[in-house]
Amino acid sequence: MTQQIPLTWFLYFASASFAIGLMGVLMRRNAIGVLMAIEIMLNAANVNFVAFWRYGTAPAGEGPLTGVMMALFVVTIAAAEVAVGVGLILLCYRRWRSADVEEFDGLSG
Amino acid sequence: MPSGLSIQDFVIFSPVILLTIWGLLSLIFDLTLLAGQDPTTRNRALGMWTLAGLVGSLVLSQFLSYKFMGPSAGTDPQIFFGSLNGGVLFIQFTSLVILFAVLITCLSMVWNFTSHWGEYYAMLIWSSVSMILLIAAEDLLTLFLALETMTICLYLMTAMEKSKQRSAEAGLKYFVYGSVSSALFLFGISLVYGMTGTLSIAEIGHILSSTEKPGLTGNVVGGVAVLMILVGFGFKVSAVPFHQWAPDVYEGAPTPVSAWLASGSKLASLVAMVKVMGGGLGSWASTNSPTSPGWVGLLALISAATMTYGNFAALGQTNLKRLLAYSSIAHAGYMLVGVIAVGLSTEPEEAAAALFFYLVVYGLTTIAGFALAAWIDRDRGTEEVEDLNGLARRHPYIGVAVCILMLSMIGIPPTAGFFGKLYMFMEALNVGGTDKVTMVGLVALGLFNSVVSAFYYIRILKAMFFRESDRADLKPMGPEIALPLGLGAVLTLFFGFNSSILLSDMESVSRSGLHFTQRSVNPDGYNVPAPGVVKPAALKEVAKPAPVTKPAPAAKSSATTTKPATPAKPATGVPAAAPKS
Q1: Which of A20, B230, B358, B383 could pair covalently with B320 via S-S, beta carbons 3.0-4.6 A apart?
Q2: Is the ipTM of this complex over 0.90?
Q3: Which chain B residues are closer than 8 Å to A22 by Cβ?
Q4: Could you tell me which chain A residue has the CA closest to the CA of B244?
Q5: How far apart are alpha carbons B95 and B97 in whole angstroms?
Q6: Touching check for A58 and chain B: CB below 8 Å?
Q7: pLDDT tens per residue, range B311-369
Q8: How far is B316 from B113, CA to CA, in rounded Å?
Q9: Spatial distance between the Cα atoms of B244 and B241, rounded to a whole number of angstroms
Q10: What does the pLDDT look like over B92-106, one tens digit per residue?
Q11: Which structural domains are found in chain A, ordered by start?
Q12: How far away is chain A from the Cα of B241, in angstroms, using its nearest Cα?
């Protein structure tokens, strides 16, 4: 067999995409863009879970698929979150006629 | 970990299953039986339906606790392959969350802030279900699922007030802040999973405590994981650097939903935080070395900033809901002192019991406070503090009730709020060792802040008792508002005079349901690393999550390093294990 890709590569990738997601949340002004950035962050964590599962051995008493199960559940949660998020963005769009997060500033103080 | 799935798991879990189905049925009824009715009728009918389900589930859970959990239930029952607690903790907090949900349902029936009542009540029921699951969760997968289910329901409930633009804005803000914090929390969990190879909280605590305790300096992965998990919980309990969403959301959300956010959501998140920080990551709480601190130092800073900022910002508020939001931030600061005490105490169960006592009292009083806001919101559409002018003269009983509540929030003796603070701060002062200084400082700051908080709570009383108002009087409260307000006041007084009842109850809860990692028997309250222990190797291994680091080396390093050098380790196992079984 050829050499395996080392775990650290996956971790670098996950950290980088997490950082990209976080920067996206902080810098994007469009609400849909923010939503996409949040999804990138969740998926970065998923990469971590699957990589740790693949490269590690579970301790005694632990099920064999923990990391993968977690990733699967997170995918579902992410889908639910997108559904709710798009709904909320639509609600705001109807009132402001804009999806720009910086315009939603009626509440402050 | 218990093996196999028995029918009894489902029996113990049945109150929650009942509630879940009840929520589905409320959606179906709204679309079939109640289709075409006007919103007021649907609100009444579905509210009553929700109340029936909640009360039924409460009765069922009490019956089950009577049937399955006699006085001998000191063990640590887990259901569904060890993913949920099925013991006293589960039952008692189920009852508590349902009680809160009953009060919120009452408040929701007061006026028509939305027309989607089927969805609203379904969300209310499902969010209480997920709060129960969040409290009962024994592994991080369940915990994260419950946390997300809870907050997704709450995002929607926040945005449900149709007549007000601010409600939609609050919903979106809550959504963005909440999901970013969830993503951070999830990334933190993934790192913990990488270091331990498991998601079970008890198992994580076991693995982490069996390695040496190098603190978090130099332990990059551990430090990042703790930081991210703290940020996640900080958002949920609205601690200070992560609090910006709270005032906006509490003001923008429909008043019953604000009350639900401040009571139920905060209760569930704090219990989960105690479990994860005290149980799973408890061995990282503190080390004796100042150069390599644990998470306690960080949390102490957050706690101090939270209570100070919350109280001082509340001083300038004119909107009652916003004022209550800042007050809830301040209370989160006090409660974080309790979390720190759990992390440091040699008797973490007692510290947790004191914290839970405070949480229960805080939940009841804050729901009652929002009930007051709901009253003026219903009749005037605003909730300014000056709308309260002269109310106590026209409604003396309500004046007395609000007076009791405000005294409890400040923490003045005959009320339960005083005893909550007393027990929690006493637990904090019981901590020994180098962290004693921190704890004394935090408690002193907490007391100072209680004095500051008196100014704005008294402002509410001043408006009610001493100001005149030329505006038309409010309509009578009606039972829907009177029940949460009255029950809050009565229970606050009751638990003030009989605080030991609630405290011993919470103690049985925390003794049966929380597993803290072993604490040392040193009077200092720490596992003092014995001199001469070869730490760097273990530290380096944990620091880099290479495939080799995970479970096997953790066990290996503990075997090699602890055996010769630390007499504390083998000794700790015995006394800490004894009270559990």
Answers
A1: B383
A2: yes
A3: 180
A4: A108
A5: 6
A6: yes
A7: 999 999 999 999 999 999 999 999 999 999 998 888 888 899 999 999 999 999 999 99
A8: 28
A9: 8
A10: 899 999 999 999 999
A11: 7-103 (1.10.287.3510)
A12: 15
